[in-house]
Amino acid sequence: KKKAFTKYAKKHANGGAEIQAELNRIKNYCSVVRVLAHTQIKKIKLRQKKAHIMEIQVNGGSVSQKVDFAVALFEKSVPIDAVFAENEMIDIIGVTKGKGFEGVTTRWGVRKLPRKTHKGLRKVACIGAWHPARVSWTVARAGQNGYHHRTEINKKVYKIGRGIANGGKNTATTDFDLTEKNITPLGGFPQYGIINEDFIMLKGGVIGPRKRVLTLRKGLFPQTSRSALEEIKLKFIDTSSKFGHGRFQTSEEKYKFMGPLARRAKIAAAQNQA
User: Fold this and answer.
1) Residue 179 burial by CB count (10 A; 0-12/13-18/19+): exposed, middle or buried?
2) pTM over the 0.70 mark
3) Of the four, 47, 117, 130, 182, which is 20 to 30 A from 227 by CA?
């Protein structure tokens, strides 16, 4: 039928008078302004097609200025370098890797009971006194482990780079390592693939498995430590294969060392025949 948003589209038909009236109403009566943002899920080759939607609050200035700022961003993509900068400290919000239902020893790290214990030893021996006649929330118990919502603060931004799709070239080349190479390692990132879009490189690990959506946020507190304020100058970015031992930084370097391979000769012969 293709009826989605047809009634909403009519609001924009006669010069958008109805839309403008709604914006003026927001300026007159609202105190908090938020925008609806969505991810560009089509840009990465995932099974998922539906975009993630998020409300983002607009801060600073008067309500009228907030609305004008938000309207100027309608239907526009916001690149990552418009929000974050290199050497900045940011926070990451996400959901951790799920582990399923796990026992108390794995889940809470409690001490195991002696070997000769009856009915198992990976348990908590005493789960509380007779009275109060209920188990306290502070007692370690078995249950769901992982797949928890978590926020990690103060992750340093090492690099923000343009993707191949946006005209990025030699994104893994530094002033000290002049080899022409892109950020994707040989054979791609395990369980992810090739980086075609803009990317951000952070210090340390991040929450959750590969391909799970993350929310990046500006740090909430002013930074004072030397490690947070220091300027990072990357000397070397390793692009060797992450599947094996990874000896070579580029495919050219690998072919130069390995010499003519039978597999490559077969491919070349097939191309010549075609």
Assistant:
1) middle
2) yes
3) 182
